[in-house]
Design brief:
Number of strands: 4
Helix content: 25-40%
Strand content: 15-25%
Number of helices: 4
Shape: elongated
Amino acid sequence: MLHFTCDRCDRGLLLEEDVRYEVTIEVKSGYDPMEITREDLKKDFSAEMSRLLRQMKKKGTRELEDSVYKVFRFDLCLKCQKEFIENPLSKLTVNNEQ
């Protein structure tokens, strides 16, 4: 039997709660359209590719993958779901800075 717990407060789900909520957070690189100039077209692209490959070799596979795309999945109880909806980034406000 599957046993779910709230990933935020560890409360048992489906046993102590009638419902559970799934939260999926997708983090990906944001790319803006590039404006190509005449100077860009004059660059040595072979040298640029070599430079980028050297930089990549210094990093591990996971670090490279995580820098481009990562997905997180969480189960929440009703109380934590309401708190998440109200403040998904857990930013401090004037009322809860204590």
